[in-house]
Amino acid sequence: MTRIFKRGYLALILLFLYVPIIVLIIQSFNAGVSRARWAGFSLKWYVDLFKSPAIMNALYITVTIALLSAVIATIIGTAAAIGIHAMQKRPQAFMMTLTNIPMTMPDIVTGISLMLLFIFTQVKRGYITMLAAHITFNIPYVILSVMPKLKQMNKFSYEAALDLGATPGYALRKVILPFVMPGVITGALLSFTLSLDDFTISYFTTSPLVQNLSTLIYSEARKGIKPTMNALSALMFVALLILLLAVNRRVSKTQEV
Amino acid sequence: MEERPQLIKLEDVSKEYDGTVVLSDINLYIRKNEFVTLLGPSGCGKTTTLRIIGGFERATTGRVLFDGEDITDLPPYKRRVNTVFQKYALFPHLNVFENIAFGLKVAKRPKDEIKARVEKMLSLVNLKGYGKRSVESLSGGQQQRIAIARALVNEPEVLLLDEPLGALDLKLRQEMQLELKRMQQRLGITFIFVTHDQEEALTMSDIIVVMRGGYIQQIGTPKDVYDEPKSAFVANFIGESNIIRGTMVKDFLVNFCGANFPCVDKGFGEDVPVDVLIRPEDVQLVEEGQGMLKGTVRSVLFKGVHYEMIIDTGEFSFKVHSTAMQPEGAAVGLSIIPFNIHIMRPMQVDAFEEEEAEE
Amino acid sequence: MSNMRFPPWAIWAMLAGLAGFAAMIAASVRHNRGVRRSLFAYPYGLWMVVFTIIPLLLIGYYAFTNKAGQFTLDNFKTFWDSNYEMNKQLIELGMDPQTLGSARGTVNVDTLVYSLWMAFLCTAICLFVGYPAALFMADREFKLGSTLVILFIIPMWMNFLLRTIAWMSLLEDNGLINTILSAIGLPRMQLMYNSQAVLLGMVYNYLPFMVFPIYNALAKQDGKLSEAAMDLGASPMLTFWRVTMPLSLPGVISGITMVFMPSVTTFFIPRVLGGGNTEMFGDLIERTFLSADNWNVGSALSLIMMILILMSLTLLRKVDPEGEGGSTI
């Protein structure tokens, strides 16, 4: 009895989370423009999607920014985590507080403060500024994913490598990096998804000429979202799902060994 | 033993962390092929000393010499020493073979040589056929052997061992003690071993270096350190002991517990306060009325090989080990032969006097 | 503010510094020894200074200056009284604002109070809905816990603006819900453009952030603890209240933080699902900056919000000094 209740409760919550998504996917196959009325099945919006330069451009910007910002943030963040980990107690605590600042800052303040910086320094807002902003909010997440791994590491592992004749660089590449790699990957994936989904910070740090999907959707929201957008997000959703399944399979495979 | 050349020498080495002194004026030399143990309670500086020899810490002052060459500033990967770490520090992402091969790969040895040497090491530590295993699947004792093999495969001139047996259970520890000793003798390598376990130190070492609070208290063979401790601290730390405040009346005569005892020590001066050490097994129980002191048995504990009795003489409670049991409450006499009465300078000054270090 | 200029070469200097650090580290990694690993954190430190510290200082600068760049507290007075500037000008023109009927404008304060109230409601709902969900998921008999976590994450991959907009098709006057209602003979309802719709959108978006940390805290709890409690005679109910629940508090705190913070500052959801009178503080800041083009007041508003958030975080930290529940996703 309680079991049924518990499962029913969870199912209900999942339903709540998935209903809008299902609706959205159904709409993407709707031949009509109206959100409410079903006008028959059609792939029209999927075809339109690839013909819309605005959407394709926004897609390109979104994906490249997500990739670039994830890669750069992962490099800077991983190096930072290793550096902070090697520090003495007090500077370490200081750096960790510094890392927590952007995470406790509301997105809108982060966005606006960066906008002020770019206007103040007369840097034209666009692709580069948006990229810099995304890197900025991604780095702390990378640090926070790598740090626990570093703490888990036997503190003598690094010294053991030096003891066996490895130079610090070699020890870093062959001992520290392989060990923290799971954390690095988590950080990179987290960065990628955060960047993909970001709206608020992008909104303040780019110009209307350089739009990612979020800002494009926002600017279209008042005019009414075209079903092409639904088609796109349905496609991205499926793509990410496949990616997740692939990653999951790889992870479970490597864990078995 | 005296002819063996000095291999490692620490000269006036001291170490500070943020103004806290953890090592003071360490002077120590270690000869080739010796099994040297740094022994002391935690925080005595033994691990720091080892890490300075390994190159992981830099001495604040002083020099480290290796074969007459100054290696004070040499990084660990350029030193001809290898370390077996506390809790082993095996690389979890590498398998057993790769762990042992790590140092050889760094040195860019040819593949077949690496394979041959690793296999040889595996059989030396009795783990033949374990090469493909993941290190995390091994037991503590096996990991221990891998850590030793990983260090020894590089044919270091000195092997540093930082409490390597601390995580093993008693029986395994005793087995490993013998095995390590055997390995050291067979390979002819200098071992520097850090432990806080006095029994381990007594069993394995050629030389024991007793440390406390960043100072060397005494250096000597296990027998020296046990029989002729230089201070009450050493006496207490190594083996069980009765330490009694007494007065050196003159050479060969000491007064404690209200009686004069002949002894074999001299050179302390006349009427000088001293600490008197008597090992529990050196107190002989005799009939009441005989012997130099009389006392009452307070408690009796059976310890397997012997009985441990606490005997109260009024001035001092002696701990006595004997195979013959006296019942609780019995009145007995105590007798101590001169040879077993050991005189030491009192505790307070001992921190300042032992630094000239070597025998 | 146009007289405040940042020389363009400063940017290049910063970039050059960054590149220099990178090169230095690369070199020291290739060669050896001597390199202190703490140096690895320097590029990050520099990045943080340029892209977090300086921008924050800019907000502080604008909040305490007027358009001419002089120090002033007027921006904060404007927060308290949105008519402050206007009344000041009226007084300068020799008129009495009160006789003209221009009283204190309470828009800003009201919006803040409304935002806090909405965020509080959203957090409370998320907690009451999310805690049982996390509890059931972490149940040891329930084997699908970790799978369910992934099922909670997946919806977040769909662009959150689109997901929010998707609610429109459910809620609008001839949307799915109303269609169903009328089909079974019930009257249609006004579901959109009110506070409830905004709240729904917020709960929908932020619920997973409440469930994850609580689930983590519960799942890593040693099952033996509750067994021990029952062994000592505690009923399942008592075990929950005395053992399981207190131990999950770090997760709850972290969940509250992660829901409350974005809810106070959300500015998209009220725009889509809310009506005219549901503006929240995030909207207000955005509007002040971009529509009213008043950076000074906008910065003051941002500063006030940050201080509020920092204060609530400090309060929450007191309950959970270790910050243990921090790990999520």
Characterise this structure.
The complex is a heterotrimer of chains A (257), B (359) and C (329). By secondary structure, chain A is an all-alpha fold. Chain A has two domains: 161 residues, MetI-like fold; 31 residues. Helices cover 80% and strands 0% of the residues of chain A. By secondary structure, chain B is α+β, with helices and mostly antiparallel strands. The longest helix of chain B is centred in the middle third of the chain and has 18 residues. A six-stranded mixed beta sheet of chain B has the order 6-7-8-3-9-10, sandwiched between helices. Chain C has 329 residues and is mainly alpha-helical. Chain C has 14 helices and no strands. Chain C starts with 7 loop residues before the first helix and ends in a 10-residue tail after the last helix. Chains in contact: A-B, A-C. At the A-C interface, α1, α3, α4, α5 and α6 of A face α1, α2, α5, α6 and α7 of C.
Largest sheet data of chain C: none
- Uncertain segments of chain B are 349-359
- Could you give the order of strands across the largest sheet of chain B? 6-7-8-3-9-10
What number is the mean pLDDT of chain B? Answer: 87
The first-level CATH class of the largest domain in chain C is given as: Mainly Alpha
Q: Could you say how many structural domains of chain B there are in total?
A: 2
Q: Low-confidence segments of chain C, ≥5 residues, pLDDT <50?
A: 1-6, 323-329
Structural class label of chain B = alpha+beta
Rg calc of chain C: 26 Å
**Any idea what the radius of gyration of chain B is?**
24 Å
* Sequence of secondary-structure elements of chain B: EEEHEEEHHHEHEHEEHHEEEEEEEEEEH
Report the top-level CATH class of the largest domain in chain B.
Alpha Beta
Assign the CATH superfamily of the largest domain in chain B.
Answer: P-loop containing nucleotide triphosphate hydrolases
Q: What portion of the residues of chain B fall into strands of 2 or more residues?
A: 25-35%
Q: Can you tell me the number of structural domains of chain C?
A: 2
Instruction: Figure out the total of helices of chain C.
Output: 14
